[in-house]
Amino acid sequence: MKFFIDTANLSEIKAAQELGVLDGVTTNPSLMAKEGITGTNNILKHYVDICNISDGDVSAEVNSVDYDGMIREGEELAELHERIVVKLPMTKDGVRACKYFSSKGIKVNVTLVFSPGQALLAAKAGATYVSPFIGRLDDISTDGLNLIAEIREIYDNYGYETEILAASVRNTMHIVNCAKIGADVMTGPLSAILGLLKHPLTDIGLAQFVADYQKGNKS
């Protein structure tokens, strides 16, 4: 499973990259605003800065909600860097724009997916990635992980190459469970990724190893 980090924070992206497990980055206007990145030129520059840190795909989201606007913005984003993936919303115009970009060999991430039918449409339109938001479904007492499983079944039935990018990942167990049911990619915060490192028995065992070494190697 690929590990993407969902942030616009350059320090967090560097930390994930240095860990050696980062496969890509996703971000959006809300995450940009959280880091104080505003204004079109600053946002475009920030995407390039992210590409210069990460070795993998970087999803850059359009702000337009109409087809012509998505095409205009998406083309501008795609020209920024070879690793930019144009991020489009799961709407009628978003699906049309997905087909346009995929037919031109430009990678697309269809976001805000909450149903198997939406994921099916995205795959039919040639999406590189489809982003089901599991955490937001959990927030309304709906099983987000079940959506991943349903999409996996549909894609496997028909051999779709669209990768399932589990988004709105909130915690370490989300990552583990997404891996168990076959998500191709997960995107989440650095804290969730680092959480995979933690186990009390690892800490206890390491402390014992260090203590035993020190006992046997006193000067």
Order of helices and strands: EHEHHEHEHEHEHHEHEHH
* Low-confidence runs: none
What is the helical fraction, as a range of percent? 40-55%
Main sheet makeup = 8 strands, parallel, barrel
Compute the separation of the termini in Å.
47 Å
User: How do the strands of the widest beta sheet line up side by side?
Assistant: 1-2-3-4-5-6-7-8
What does this structure look like?
This protein is of the alpha/beta class and 219 residues long. It contains eleven helices and eight strands. β4, α5 and β5 form a beta-alpha-beta unit. It is globular. The N and C termini lie far apart (47 Å). The relative contact order is 0.12. The mean pLDDT is 96.
How would you concisely characterize the structure shown here?
This protein is of the alpha/beta class and about 220 residues long. It has helices at about 10-20, 30-35, 40-55, 65-80, 90-105, 115-125, 135-140, 145-160, 170-180, 190-195, 200-215, and strands at about 1-5, 25, 55-60, 85-90, 110-115, 130, 165, 185-190. It has an 8-stranded parallel barrel with strand order 1-2-3-4-5-6-7-8, surrounded by 7 helices.
List the helices and strands and how they pair.
Layout: E1 2-6, H1 10-19, E2 24-26, H2 29-34, H3 40-53, E3 57-61, H4 67-78, E4 84-89, H5 92-103, E5 108-113, H6 116-124, E6 129-132, H7 134-139, H8 144-158, E7 163-166, H9 172-180, E8 185-188, H10 190-195, H11 200-216
Parallel strand pairs: 1-2, 1-8, 2-3, 3-4, 4-5, 5-6, 6-7, 7-8
Helix pairs in contact: 4-5, 6-8
